[in-house]
Amino acid sequence: MTSLIARFRGKQQTSQESYYTAGQFALIRSRFARKTSGVIAGWILGTLVLLGLFAPFFSPSDPSIRGADTSYQRGAPQIIKFKDENGFSWRPFTYTYSKPDSGFDLSSLAAGGSLDALDALTSSGALDASEQNRYEIDRNQRRYIQFFVEGWEYSVLSIESLDIDIRWNLHLFGVENGQIHLMGTDEDGKDVFSRTLHAIWVTISIAVVALIVKLLVSLLVGGVSGYFGGRVDAILMSFTEAVRVIPSIPVYLACAVMLAGLELTPTQRYFAIAVVIGALDFAALGRRLRTHILTERNQDYVLAAQLSGASTGRIIWRHLVPSFSSYIIVDTLINFPYVILAETSLSFLGLGLTEPVNSLGVLLQKAQDPDIQQNMVWQFFPVVVFVALIMAFVFVGDALRDAADPYSEQNK
User: Fold this and answer.
1) DSSP string covering 122-178
2) CB distance 72 to 184 below 8 Å
3) Which CATH superfamily is domain 198-411 in?
4) What is the tens place of the pLDDT at every residue in 201-230?
5) Average pLDDT for residues 385-408, to the nearest whole number?
């Protein structure tokens, strides 16, 4: 018994010693692991990012107009089943869908041109939006789900400057005949599920580019302003305050007008929007970095670097900025949802990306169509994914902020 107690105390002392000797990032990781909400949100966020990063592999259909299913336009979601009235199946399956005949022959209208023919066309339901969504389901003709199937071809790695284009056609799942649409199709027959997966990565990648631009501008302005002080600090901080007080919407409108006058490809417009969002969002981080460097520039290790002949750039980037690195990383992650909201808002207002580009903002803009709200509610699936993505970023960022603060009461 005594040996067991001694062993337990030894392990406890070892864990305490490892805690006090651990590095800063190891402590943040340890505190973050104790945040249940942050861990769950991290798994959700990681899953969404993984689905977006490998969207072509997880997508059963080509999200562009090339993969549109013309025989299933405005089609409802196809439910995957294991059992129905015909019995149980270990293999998941869906049914065969076909669009019924409208019951009206257009040749009668073209030949006679009478009011009776026009009335017949109206009463047939061919012009009714809700009737266009109606499909017949053949429950006796199952279409079994297959995994790791060959389908439409997509690019895995493409570098134009090196003339490299690696393509693949393997997908996670598909059906024996035709296409499967887990979340239905839009008015063109494009698969909503595949478009949403591709939109996740487009939106996240815009946020990554915007945050990189924001980080570089913040480090440049805050680092130079805090290190030199004086007149340089006054000029740069005046510029920072001017950028911070300018309303963002008018600036975005002006940038949208400017971009509209340029002949830009979707990729060029994508990078232009990311740079604009990042360049206008540097003020808060730049001021915090400037305050930190104003405090740290008179420390002994900075004086030692100056006496050893280190250049100004080396002192800022190799000594001062790394001492603030944990806060920079946490601040960057916390600002992810706000940058995503900025891109989504611009695209939602028609100022950012537009069709046929797949982004969450573009898909959210489509969801405000009254026809979609009344007859194609399944196109609100991108809205659900968008909310889940934003909430996951918020919970992960909140947990990281608490984990990075060693004086937080929640961490004691």
Assistant:
1) HHTTTT-HHHHT--EEEEEEEEEEEEEEEEEEEEEEEETTTTEEEEEEEEEEEESSS
2) no
3) MetI-like (1.10.3720.10)
4) 888 888 888 888 888 888 888 888 887 878
5) 80
What's the DSSP call for residue 73? T
Distance of CA 137 to the CA centre of its chain: 35
Cα(371)–Cα(74) distance, integer angstroms: 11
Q: Angle at Cα 232 formed by Cα 308 and Cα 339, nearest 5°?
A: 100
**HSE value, Cβ hemisphere, 13 Å, CA-based, for 237:** 17
Burial, 88: exposed, middle or buried (Cβ in 10 Å; 0-12, 13-18, 19+)? exposed
264-279 average pLDDT score: 74
| Structural contact between residues 80 and 114, judged by C-beta atoms closer than 8 angstroms | no
% helix, strand, coil for the chain, step of 5: 65, 15, 25
- The neighbour count for residue 265, using CB atoms within 10 Å, is 8
| pLDDT greater than 60 at residue 309 | yes
Global pTM?
0.76
Overall average pLDDT of the 62-91 stretch: 84
Torsion angle of the four alpha carbons 61, 63, 64, 68, in this order, in degrees rounded to the nearest 10: 50
Distance in angstroms (rounded) separating the CA atoms of residues 409 and 83 = 52
Can you state the angle between helices 24-33 and 325-334, rounded to 10 degrees? 40
- Among candidates 72, 94, 69, which has minimal Cα distance to 81? 94
| 8 A C-beta contact, residue 121 and residue 110 | no
Exposed / middle / buried, residue 183 (Cβ in 10 Å: 0-12, 13-18, 19+): buried
pLDDT at residue 43 above 90?
yes
**Interatomic CA distance for residues 389 and 113, integer angstroms:** 54
Location of structure tokens 């979707």: 266
Strands 164-175 and 81-84: unpaired
Phi/psi of residue 164, nearest 5 degrees: -115, 125
**Would you list the domain boundaries of the chain?**
71-184, 198-411
36-53 helix and 192-228 helix, angle to the nearest 10 degrees: 110
Q: What is the DSSP string of 170-194?
A: EEEEEESSS---TT-B-TT--BHHH
Question: Residues 263, 264, 269, CA angle at the centre, nearest 5°?
Answer: 145
Q: Are 274 and 206 in contact (CB under 8 A)?
A: yes
Separation of alpha carbons 332 and 289, rounded Å: 13
